[in-house]
Amino acid sequence: MLVLVSYDVSTETSDGRRRLRRVAKICLNYGQRVQKSVFECKVEPMQLETLKNDLLDIINEEEDSLRIYRIVEPLEKNVIEFGKFKAVDFEDTLIV
């Protein structure tokens, strides 16, 4: 399934800046950054639970916010892109 992870981490303190880096690093393990605090992640249901739990272990719910949206198929009808960044198609073969 494709999910969109969006977060806003307070960076007023060094602890907040550390949380921000940790949240981004975890999201990078599951998907690709599409905006500064937004990631598209293709995950299985168990991976989604792990991702959610890992992020909830880091954020401070009194200062930060986290949203996870499930993007339903077909993607062509539910995702419209504008601008220079085009997301990687996870179904295509990637050459590294």
Overview of the molecule:
This protein is α+β, with helices and mostly antiparallel strands. The chain has one domain (2-78): Alpha-Beta Plaits (2-Layer Sandwich). The chain has helices at residues 14-28, 45-58, 75-78; strands at 2-8, 31-35, 38-42, 65-71. Strand 2 and strand 3 (38-42) form a beta hairpin. The radius of gyration is 14 Å and the shape is globular. Its cofactor is Mg(2+).
Question: Descriptors for this entry?
Answer:
single chain; 96 residues; alpha+beta; Alpha-Beta Plaits; 3 helices; 34% helix; globular; antiviral defense; magnesium; hydrolase activity
Order of helices and strands: EHEEHEH
Supply the helix-strand structural class.
Answer: alpha+beta
Regarding CATH, which class?
Alpha Beta
Query: Alpha-carbon distance between the termini?
Result: 23 Å
* Biggest pleated-sheet summary: 4 strands, antiparallel
Query: If strands are numbered along the chain, what order do they take across the biggest sheet?
Result: 2-3-1-4
Going by CATH, the architecture would be 2-Layer Sandwich
How many helical stretches?
A: 3
Helix content: 25-40%
In short:
The protein has 96 residues and is α+β, with helices and mostly antiparallel strands. It is built from 3 helices and 4 strands, in the order βαββαβα. Strands 2-3-1-4 form a 4-stranded antiparallel beta sheet, covered by helices on one side.
